[in-house]
């Protein structure tokens, strides 16, 4: 069930996070819209969520720090009563050859894409256990965590770590009725793919058996599936890539 549940979606001021937040809200979940810097955009998402007849809270925080992650959970508990669904989506993508990657970019990528997921899950699960409430954690990974890519080694490593986090945490909390799964998108139409030159996009499309990029709405529906229908599924990664991994 999604209706009446409280969901935190990190990085939900735009892109995939926004799509997931709106999909869950449309199915009756109250939403914590979480952002680090895009407060105006987050407020717009809050209004869109509330137009669906549910409650919404905006929290601006840096989830790459333990204090920032704890703040998000505390606000959810204070405003909505508890955490039922956590979607770890916030991420950064620093693309650079490993020999030229600055150390601060390496650390920031790992902190946001992996440490932040760990911190958010730590405090969300703590709340679920304290309330003896079954819950659901969804980690947004990437197919790059499986196949890598030149100039994307650090990003791929961070997303590969998300797979390990998903499987390990799933084993820890399954007995308490808490499920932990991941979604690994391929190329999705977001602001992060808008930078692509047309010629680069033209080279990518033939590599995708479905011959198109995915949409944030499709990722949102996959997240809703994992929350509402995949009730006997945990520790798994759902791949949404248009068939790249089978090509």
What can you tell me about this protein's structure?
This protein is an alpha/beta fold and 247 residues long. It has one domain (6-246): Rossmann fold (3-Layer(aba) Sandwich), CATH 3.40.50. It has 8 helices and 7 strands. It has helices at 15-26, 39-50, 66-80, 103-131, 144-147, 153-173, 198-204, 216-228; strands spanning 6-10, 30-35, 56-60, 85-88, 135-140, 178-185, 237-240. The chain has a 7-stranded parallel sheet, sandwiched between helices. Helix 1 links the parallel strand 1 (6-10) and strand 2 (30-35). Helix 3 runs parallel beside helix 4. The longest helix is centred in the middle third of the chain and has 29 residues, at 103-131. It is globular and about 50 Å long. The termini are far apart.
Number of domains: 1
How are the strands ordered across the major sheet? 3-2-1-4-5-6-7
| Biggest sheet details | 7 strands, parallel
Remind me, CATH topology?
Rossmann fold
| CATH architectural category | 3-Layer(aba) Sandwich
The count of DSSP E runs of length 2 or more, i.e. the number of strands, is: 7
Class from secondary-structure proportions: alpha/beta
Q: Helical segment tally? A: 8
Envelope shape? globular
Termini separation (Å)?
35 Å
The averaged pLDDT comes out at 94
Uncertain residue ranges: none
Q: What's the CATH class, please?
A: Alpha Beta
Percent strand: 15-25%
Compute the CA-based radius of gyration.
17 Å
How would you name the CATH homologous superfamily?
A: NAD(P)-binding Rossmann-like Domain
Order of helices and strands: EHEHEHEHEHHEHHE
Q: Indicate the percent of residues in helices.
A: 40-55%
């Amino acid at each position: 069930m999604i209706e009446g549940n409280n969901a935190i979606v990190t990085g939900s001021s735009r892109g995939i996070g926004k799509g997931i937040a709106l999909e869950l809200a449309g199915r009756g979940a109250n939403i914590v819209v979480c952002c680090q810097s895009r407060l105006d955009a987050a407020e717009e998402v809050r209004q869109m969520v509330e137009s669906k007849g549910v409650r919404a809270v905006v929290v601006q925080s840096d989830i790459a720090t333990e204090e920032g992650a704890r703040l998000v959970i505390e606000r959810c508990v204070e405003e909505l009563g508890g955490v039922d669904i956590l979607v770890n989506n916030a991420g950064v993508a620093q693309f650079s050859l490993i020999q030229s990657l600055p150390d601060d970019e390496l650390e920031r990528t790992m902190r946001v894409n992996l440490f932040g997921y760990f911190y958010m899950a730590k405090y969300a699960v703590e709340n679920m256990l304290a309330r003896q409430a079954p819950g659901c954690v969804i980690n947004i990974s990437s197919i790059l965590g499986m196949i890598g890519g030149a100039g994307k080694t650090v990003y791929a490593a961070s997303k590969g770590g998300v797979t390990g986090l998903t499987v390990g945490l799933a084993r820890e909390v399954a007995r308490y009725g808490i499920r932990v799964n991941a979604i690994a998108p391929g190329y999705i139409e977001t602001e992060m793919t808008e930078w692509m030159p047309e010629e680069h996009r033209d080279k990518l499309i033939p590599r995708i058996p479905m011959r198109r990029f995915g949409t944030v709405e499709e990722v949102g529906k996959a997240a809703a599936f994992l929350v509402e229908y995949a009730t006997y599924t945990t520790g798994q990664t759902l791949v949404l890539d248009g068939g790249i991994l089978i090509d």
